[in-house]
Amino acid sequence: MEFKQKTFFGRRKGKGMSKAKENLITSFMPKFQITLPKNNSKIDLFELFDFKPSSFVFEIGYGDGDHLINMAIKNPDIAFIGTEVFMNGNASILKKILDNDIKNIRIFPDDVNLLFPFLKNESFDRLFILYPDPWPKNRNQDRRMVNLENLKIFSRILKKNAEMLVVSDHPIYIPWVLFCMQNQKDFIWNVSKSADFVNVPLDWETTKYEQKALKEGRIPIYLSFIKK
Ligand SMILES: C[S@@+](CC[C@H](N)C(=O)[O-])C[C@H]1O[C@@H](n2cnc3c(N)ncnc32)[C@H](O)[C@@H]1O
Description:
This protein is α/β, with parallel strands linked by helices and 228 residues long.
């Protein structure tokens, strides 16, 4: 498969990472980290876990990991895969995985674009993209996680009837997502009334970014799409 490396725009590291966080990453990341195969083979998600998961959930850009951690605690039979490029976030989720003795999370602590080519078709039952960086300037549209090119990838790695949930509070990002979804054929918008996109989904777990947005008076919009 041909794979064109994309440039990553964003933050990989905060101003300073404490020695404790650095030690945490050095000591424990290898146990929970997904490493990319050396050859062109695809990752067997079942092989990443010590149990047979009933389904697989994928979260892109988990930040501090609160959503992934709480979902994983509530659903021990489900396997959760997360990616986050920001190293301070990866240190935070590692600590939470260890503190809660979580066995059903594996993480890819890097740019998700590097992982995509190694994921098999129809790998996941759910995909979460929660408060993605908005990149509000028109000229930076290509950097947005939801874009027409990535929607083809999401469609490839999701099973039929899988849910893709995109949550944002951003006045440019919401119409952008709806515009992209209008220009693709693989997903349908899972909505029958306006309450569906302003009320939290049934098994919702909040995120750090969401808490900040709510405190500052911004309104989260929950856009659920189903893979055809
Ligand atoms: C606004 S934050 C939201 C974090 C978290 N989802 C929350 O709601 O608290 C967006 C996150 O996406 C991550 N991110 C952006 N592009 C990414 C990429 N290509 N691969 C992995 N993570 C990415 C950023 O590092 C950042 O932590």
